[in-house]
Amino acid sequence: MIPGLEHLSYEERLRELGLFSSEKRRLRGDLTAAFQCLKEVYKKAGDRHFSRACSYKTRGNGFQL
Fold first, then answer.
1. pTM score
2. Residue 2 contacts by C-beta under 8 Å, 6 or more apart in sequence?
3. Mean pLDDT (10-residue bins), the chain, 65 residues
4. Backbone angles phi, psi at 51, to 5 degrees
């Protein structure tokens, strides 16, 4: 517990400290893990499941379903 924040609710403490909730952190971790799996499948499976995007809309990622 950080001194001076005892009276604030959990959400208010997170906002005050500039942190995300554990639910959002878990979701981000899940999305990162899913992307890593998809990236490995793309490397192993070739062009059967995924294609490289020829678009500027993927912000440099290049993978699309």
1. 0.47
2. 13, 17
3. 85 90 90 83 58 60 59
4. -130, 155
**DSSP, res 57:** G
Tokens of 22: 């554990």
φ and ψ of 18, to 5 deg: 75, 35
- Predicted local confidence at residue 49, as pLDDT: 56
Q: How far apart are CA 11 and CA 23, in angstroms?
A: 12
- Contacts of 58 by beta carbon, 8 Å cutoff, 6+ apart: 64
Distance CA 36, CA 39 (A): 5
Rounded Cα–Cα distance for residues 32 and 35 (Å): 5
